Amino acid sequence: MMDTLAVVDHSDGEGLSRAYDVVRGGNEGLLVAFLGDLDEEQAAVLARMRQRSGGALAFLLDSDTWLREPTDVPGALDGREERLRMLREAGWTALGVPWGAPLDELWRQADRERSGLAAANGGEGP
């Protein structure tokens, strides 16, 4: 699986409609998304995509921490928390990704959150 992920590239387009078309036909497997900034419309498309997969995991870049110098004062939230909430309500396991976050720890955190969701749903995933 890691070999497959190593050659995955980003899409040419800016929107998510092509990705939605790809997952529209199936409802199996785990959908994994590595995302930059999302607007409300894109978050809504992702929420619908969740219904077409067996499970869904989203890593949402915290652009505030990625785009500023480490010595800068953090800015106001730009809707990222709202987008994370929208994804979670749609059944995604969604994590914000701050600058410098180790990928292995993010995967473990996602597993803990996914396990917590499964336990809260009586042993079934969202």
Verbal overview:
The protein has helices at 2-6, 17-23, 40-50, 63-67, 80-89, 103-120, and strands at 30-35, 55-61, 93-97. The protein has a three-stranded parallel beta sheet, with helices on both faces. Helices cover 44% and strands 14% of the residues. It has a single domain (11-120), classed as Rossmann fold (3-Layer(aba) Sandwich). Helix 3 (40-50) runs parallel beside helix 5. Helix 3 links the parallel strand 1 and strand 2. The chain is globular, with a radius of gyration of 15 Å. It comes from Streptomyces haneummycinicus. This is DUF58 domain-containing protein.
Q: What's this, in brief?
A:
This is DUF58 domain-containing protein. The chain is about 45% helix and about 15% strand.
Ordered list of secondary-structure elements with their pairings:
Elements: H1 2-6, H2 17-23, E1 30-35, H3 40-50, E2 55-61, H4 63-67, H5 80-89, E3 93-97, H6 103-120
Oligomer status: single chain
CATH topology term: Rossmann fold
Shape: globular
What structural category arises from helix and sheet content? alpha/beta
The biggest sheet, with number of strands, parallel, antiparallel or mixed sense and barrel status, is: 3 strands, parallel
Enumerate how many helices there are, as a single number: 6
CATH architecture: 3-Layer(aba) Sandwich
